[in-house]
Each structure stands twice: as structure tokens, then as C-alpha cells.
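Researcher: Please predict.
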Amino acid sequence: MNLLRSFQAYIEENHLFNPKDRLLLAVSGGIDSVVLCELCWQGGYEFVIAHADFGLRGEESERDKEFVEGLAKKYAAPFLVKSFDTKGYAALHKVSVQVAARELRYGWFREIIAGKGDSPLIEGRTPKYIVTAHHRDDNIETSLMNFFKGTGIAGLRGMLPEQDGIVRPLLFAGKEQLLGFANDHHLNWVEDSSNATDKYARNYIRHQLVPLLQAIYPGVENNLAANLPRFREIETLYHQAIDQHKKKLLEYKGQEVHIPVLKLKKTEPLATILYEIVKEYGFSPQQITEITSLLDSETGKYVQSATHRIIRNRNWLIIAPLAAGESSHLLIEGAGNWQFAMGNLQLSIHAVADCQLPTANRQLHIAHLDAGMINFPLLLRPWKQGDYFYPLGMKKKKKLSRFLIDQKLSKTEKEKVWVLEMDKKILWVLGMRIDDRFRITGSTTTVLKMELKPS
């Protein structure tokens, strides 16, 4: 089989992109992405090469970066590279290194597609699509991983040819086909040593589980690959049925969703349909039993997710958002304008001589800190129980909950309080008080000005 013709046919069949579109190729330097580059070049597609350096493998990471840069020169393609503090991001966001790497690289890719980030470095048109080298075997592994994790029908069908702005034109091809193509065309690539270890779930499935299954069912890979499009069709039918139930049950009133209890009780299968309704509001499968119990509870009972409450109110269940932005966290990476749930936060850095410092009649929506003591990134988030800080003018720490009581704030006013923190130290209770530890002193040379513009 001619891989190039199959590649082009798959792109056309799935309406992935047009011959005149400019593409952003995510290239690691491994065999899969090298073959992707060659196929795009042979197919006459115009592309930009982007390489994410996660800084996890020392000299090997540097080798990969140099190799991909050479690949870009071979194809006369623009080359973009970005280095990330992957471990730092993982620690800050409390995710695994693998999740951190995925979020970082796709966040960067989307910035490029949106014309931000590194886009000004590209000559000519901004790329239109993010293109990755995921292939059939990757998709089989993804489906198996999702099956064992219990992600439902959407997980069983694996990755889609196009999903969330990411295009995968190699999902039709197995690893052996890519290897054969690379050898036939004398392509060079680099090996990621981490692919050889079984400490990652995907690698364990690839090296251990799939070979065991092949020993029992010799055609298991072809069988699993054939299942994926079937699961995609099942998912389509599933969502069509769910949408019909939603139309019958849901009444939208502003930001709230109202569901009649008696009608919901008669719905079958109740647990599945209820989960499909509430999952987009942050509720987990484990909460479905608790939510179902609301159908027989008295008025006022509720179940809560990170962002919403489901409240029993007479003959209705009401899905209502918590106080605006209660679950939001925003990473502030430097000076500039930062939009968040309660408005806009503008940060700017000035020399002391150029900055109009606060007076006794200071404006509460503007605050100033010693910029020399500030290290980005900062975290903007709603306050929570257990927070404490050193209010300006005080040398002892104070619980923020106590501070808000002293300010005589109502319950709803407290729900709108946000804080700006650095390394788990609160810098500013927005619109109220800065932390004394970061105040401007006689030795201050630069000032961080913070201006809050409520929505």
C-alpha cells in the first residue's frame, strides 16, 4: 500500500484540511513525527515545525531540539521551539508531569494558531491547524487505557481524526507501516529513552499488555482498530438519545437549569441520563447516587460540585452556579491586563520616582507593592478558609476569615473576595488590603502597581 496515497485519501475522507492550508506540525524528532513531516512535504502541504522542549531528559532534550531544527532546514520550513519548566508547572497545578507536558505544549500550539505567542516569528501566513503524528497503535492504546479507567463510550472510541482543533492524519496507519515508510525513504529520527521504560501506563500497555493479548488473539490489534469506528458510531447514537432526553427535561432560566422532579423520576435509564445532564457542571459519576437521593428529599437539600449546586426546591431540581468564579484559578505570568471572574486586574511595574504612591486617602481598588520582592508567576484565586496574611500595618498574621468579619462583609460579599498570592503567600486581598511584608519601604526601587476594575 502506498502510504502517501492513503495519507491523502484519509485527509480528504475526513475533511481534515485543504491542500492550500498552512499547517503547524508538532514534531518531537521521533519516527512518527519524522514520517509526518516527510508525508506533508511529499504531499505538497505548506507547514511550520514546532518543537516543545520539556527539559526532562538533559542532554537528550538538547539533542532532540537540534535534530528537529535540522529537520526544519531540510524542508525549508519555519522552525519554532519553546522550553518549559514542566516539573514546576506540574507542582504548581498538582498534576502529573505527563499531564503538565500535554497542557503546556497544546497551550503553546493554540497560541500560535490564534496568532499570539510565537506567531510573529513566522514569515507568511499563520498556520491554520495543529497537526500531530498520533497513529493507529497510539489510538488502540488510548482506547485500552480509557477502558481500564472507566471513561465510558467517549473514551472507548479513542482519539478522533479532528478534535478540539487538533488534527491527526495518521490514525489510519500502524507503527509498522510508518517504520517501513521511514526505511524505504532513508529517513533519520531520534529515540526518546523514556519510551523504553514501563513506568508510564501507556508504555506498559504497549510493551506488556498488547503482546500478551496477541499471544491469545493473534489478530487483536486489527480487531481493536476495527472497533474504534464502531464505537464512534455508537457514541453518535448515544448522544442523539441523550439530546432528546435533555430537550424534554431541561428548562433554562438565566444561569440556572430547572428539572422537573416527577418527570425525571420516570426517565430510564435514570443514572446515565442524570450523569450526562450534570457532568458539564463539574459533578462526578461518584456523586450520582447522592444527586438521585435529592429526588426524594425535602426542599433546601443540595449537592455541590466545584462550580455548581444542585438544589431541591419543591418539585424541581435547580442547577445553579456558585458565587462567580468560586472555583477559578488564574496564573499571572507578568505585567499586563488579566481578565477574571470579578473583572480586570491590571499590573504594571514602575520606578519609584515615576509612580504616584498611595496617600492616606488611598483608593482601595489600587495597590502598590515592592516589585523587587515579587517573583512571577502569581496566582489569582478566590479566598478560602485557612487563608491568612499580615494586613498592612500589622506585624502578626491574621486569618483572612477573621479579617473579613472585621470588615463587616455579608455572606454574599465574602463570596466575591479574591486574593493574589505568590509562593502560597497572600500579596493582596483585592480591593481591601495588601500584605505588610511586601509594602513599599525606603529601600524600594521599583513598584508593582495593581489596579482592580470590577466587572
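Model: The chain has a mean pLDDT of 90.
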